[in-house]
Write a structure and sequence with these properties.
By secondary structure, this protein is of the alpha+beta class. The chain has a single domain, classed as Aminoglycoside phosphotransferase (APH), C-terminal lobe (Aminoglycoside 3'-phosphotransferase, Chain: A, domain 2). It is built from nine helices and ten strands. It has a five-stranded antiparallel sheet with strand order 1-2-3-5-4, with helices on one face. It has a three-stranded antiparallel sheet with strand order 6-8-9, with helices on one face. The protein has a two-stranded antiparallel ribbon with strand order 7-10. A hairpin with a 3-residue loop joins strand 1 and strand 2. The protein is globular, with a radius of gyration of 18 Å. The protein starts with a strand and ends with a helix. Pfam families: APH (PF01636). This is Phosphotransferase family protein. InterPro entries: AGP_Transferase, Aminoglycoside_PTrfase, Kinase-like_dom_sf.
Length: 254
Amino acid sequence: MEEVEVVVAHRQRATLRVGDVFLKVDGDPAHAEVEVRAMGMAPVPTPPILWREPPVLAIAAVPGTALGVLGEPSTASPAAWAATGAAIRGLHDAPLPPWPGPRLDDLAAELDRECAWLLDNAVLPTEVVRRNREIAGAALRPWTPVFIHGDLQITHVFVDGDEVTGIIDWSEAAPGDAMFDLAVLTLGHEERLDDLLAGYGPDADRDVIRAWWSLRSLTASRWLIEHGFDPDSPGCEFDVLRARMREPEGLRRS
């Protein structure tokens, strides 16, 4: 008998692993609909879909191992990171998915709301929130939409040696800012940005990526806390925010 492993579980969704099958249970059927459609459109390796019976989506495991985990150094080679960058570039160059993506006004309102919550509840020192809110402003500019994954965490990219074997968890895919994907993937792994961009190409905006590190960490923290995760774990969101305080003043404002 195969053991059942709980991969992740919170109030919105749960993912279970039984052997080489992942069962994703989500109370919102729209998430699975986006995931299925996005995987069918994406020009990168994705998990095979085995069956779908709402609220459950069954997908097969992809070969290889995750590019890394948040809070620990990535053991993947520079070539694997470069291959990941090339795969992401292929995604960003693909035709846009035909559903709406994040709106700039909504992101700005969310950032203000979450910063206020962090300050009102004394979750982080005022100066850390204020400085990162200042840095995050560089991400709040018009962008040319591309096909983004939308939740490109380091654990969602699988590699075997120097080859990308699969990218998973597509429920947030949409037209959006290319720099957002690059920032989420390197969140807490900023030292691997050069390796990633070696494969992605020279036109990435490092200042905007840095801004998204701050914005993503500020806006995700309350959700993480309320769903049983700890953004103050080593190498995670709070460490990302504190790291901005150690940067030279000119770099913070770039």
